[in-house]
Amino acid sequence: MTKQQTPSLFRSILRGYAWIIILLTAGASAVVFTTFRSAFRERAMEDLTRSAYALVPMVQNRIASSEFITLDSLVNTAALKMDTRITIISRDGSVLADSEEDPDCMENHRTRVEVIAAFNGISGNSIRFSKTLGREMLYAAVPVVLEDSIVSVVRTSLFFDSYSAAMRPIVKEMFFIMLITMAIAVLSGWVISRNIAKPMSNLADVADRVRRGELGARAAPGHSREHNSLASSLNETLAKNEELIRDLSRSNSRSRAILLSMIEGVAVVSKEAVVLLLNDSFRELFNIRNSEREVPSEVLTLFQQPDVSPDGIIKYENKTVAYSQALVEGSGDFVFSFRDITKEVQLSDMKRNFVTNVSHELRTPLTAVKGYAETLKEEIHGEAGKYLDVILRNTDRLIALVTDIQTLSEVESTADFLHIESFPITEVFDTVMPLFTARSKEKNIPISLVQAKAHITVNADRYRIEQVFVNLIDNALKYTDSGSIEVRASTKGDQAVFAVSDSGCGIPPEAMPRVFERFFVVDRSRSRKMGGTGLGLAITKHIIEAHGGTISVSSTAGQGSIFLFTLPVGNS
Ligand code: ADP
User: Domain coordinates of the chain in residue numbers?
Assistant: First the structure.
């Protein structure tokens, strides 16, 4: 139903009220009128009966003296006086006299209801509707008794409408009173309807003003408790809403300002990949000046990916752009932020290339120095030989450092530095474990290998995993003075789990979070003495994570350390 078709509350109440009044008044009028009419009719019948009784003595006399002829003049005179029709009916039903018609032409009246009653000794009456005249007639008949027997019947009759003509002014007056009553009732209905509907329409008006944006609109108090409580609840809700909307719009403007002023390019995208908002930095980053339709296909593809990773890197023209993505709770929209990392990538490439080149360039002369120093060592003894030992030790340190730096820059240089294959891990142990046999014996620290399963296969780069085990076992030996070392291999789901534990000096708790950092060493002099570079664990962590595994350490200072890492299980 449209708004125009829906009647107002005022109209509805008034219409219902008017109908009730009209129906009640009409009903009451009908009841009063019928009651009045039947009382009138009863009265008329009583009058008729009384008139008939009044005639009885005269008729009695005439019949007793057999003056039947005079009956005619009697009924005519009496009818005129009484303004009724009078009929005298003999015992056999024939009409003896009638004030209106010739008795000889009238049919037998014996069967008339009122006449039957009168011949039975009681007054009878009847109301009949004359179809020919279209009028209602009232009849009253009383017996005329002579010497204990009913000799005749006097019947009086009249047209009820002519009798009830007297009722007309009363009915008119009644009708007029009814009309006035109805008008007053409708008028008071109008006032009542207005009083009921007005507060409602005031409230509706307030709601409409709020809908049109007038947040400060409030409902005025009314004259009823209900209206006042409704108005105050509405006002309270409106005040809260106003506060909320103002808060929201403030935080919205704040977010917008933040978004627009951000250096990062930001795009808000719906879950259907429709671009909802782009900030200036985004447009600048992807060379969009005019319309959102020009969002580059590389970025659109990213928006459309159903399982896009939370962060990553995309290439756009000659730029490298890092992105991160987050879901806006509740709305299902996504916020993507983009940062141009081209310069950072170039810089880190340059740094890596430099490191690789320098370490490569250093390695050749260092190897030469080492070679010559070793040759000289064979020739020279005594004090000079000690100096040569120092030269050899430092050359070894330098070579180790250069090698580690080179390895680190290798594993960091490309994401695909790994040559993944599926192989049994025992093959790695077969290569790595013998490297430590001599040192383990020399330090009297046995290295045990425990394999939970006979054939543990891993999906990994064989050479890099060897490097991992060499680094970890080498550290275990370096930082353990007594006790033992254990290398343990097992599987958990689709992961192979390895642990290298020792009973060495352990790592103090404050140093634990930093052991995988480059160049971090707990005890610099000990590490130097052991020929450490501070790069072994950084390389190890990088290799493990590049395989999709994780590495962690747990340690108690003075009691030993456990390095735990995982690798993906291979096809056996
Ligand atoms: P480094 O070449 O000095 O051993 P790493 O990166 O391999 O360098 O190790 C970093 C530091 O972590 C070491 O200097 C040492 O202090 C500590 N560390 C590594 N492994 C162990 C271990 N098994 N026990 C005690 N400390 C360790």
Answer: 11-166, 215-258, 262-340, 345-413, 418-568
Q: Is the CB of 206 under 6 A from ligand 1?
A: no
Residue 68 CA to ligand 1 centre (angstroms):
160
Kindly list the distances between the CA atom of residue 138 and the CA atoms of 38, 39, 129, in Å, as whole numbers in the listed order. 12, 14, 9
Q: Is 404 in the pocket of ligand 1 (CB under 6 A)?
A: no
CATH code at 345-413: 1.10.287.130
Three-state secondary structure call for residue 244: helix
CA of 564 to the centre of ligand 1 (A): 14
User: Cα(512) to centroid of ligand 1, in Å?
Assistant: 10
Q: What is the pLDDT of residues 25-69, one digit of tens each?
A: 888 888 888 888 888 888 889 989 999 999 999 999 988 888 888
Cα(504) to centroid(ligand 1), Å: 11
* Cα–Cα distance list, 215 to 209, 229, 230 (Å): 8, 20, 18
Tell me how far the alpha carbon of residue 392 lies from the centroid of ligand 1, in angstroms: 23
534 C-alpha to ligand 1 centroid (Å): 7
Is the per-residue pLDDT at 3 higher than 60? Answer: no
pLDDT tens-digit map of 475-513:
999 999 999 999 999 999 999 999 999 999 999 999 999
- Contact 89 CB / ligand 1 (< 6 Å): no
| CA pair distance 323, 301, nearest whole angstrom | 13
Q: Is the CB of 465 under 6 A from ligand 1?
A: no
Say if CB 158 and CB 84 are below 8 A apart: yes
Separation of CA 301 and ligand 1 centre (Å):
45
Atom in ligand 1 nearest the alpha carbon of residue 518: 6
CATH architecture of the domain 11-166 equals: 2-Layer Sandwich (3.30)
522 Cα nearest atom in ligand 1: 16
Pocket test for ligand 1, best of 405, 408, 474, 479 (most atoms within 8 A of CB): 479
Q: Please tell me the distance from the alpha carbon of residue 113 to that of residue 407, in angstroms, as a whole number.
A: 137
Residue 270 in tokens: 């719906």
- Report the half-sphere exposure of 67 (CA within 13 A, side-chain side): 11
CATH superfamily of 262-340: PAS domain (3.30.450.20)
- Closest of 425, 497, 431 to residue 458, by C-alpha: 425
- Hey, do 11-166 and 345-413 end up sharing a CATH topology, with the first three levels equal? no
- Report the alpha-carbon angle 112-118-122, nearest 5: 140
d(CA 354, CA 351): 5
Ligand 1 pocket test, candidate residues 515, 542, 559, most atoms within 8 A of CB = 515
Q: How many CA atoms lie within 13 A of 56 on its CB side?
A: 19
Strand 447-451 relative to strand 485-492, pairing: parallel
pLDDT confidence of residue 492: 94
- First CA to last CA distance, the chain: 73
Distance (Å, whole) CA 86 – CA 78: 8
| CATH number for the domain whose boundaries are 418-568 | 3.30.565.10
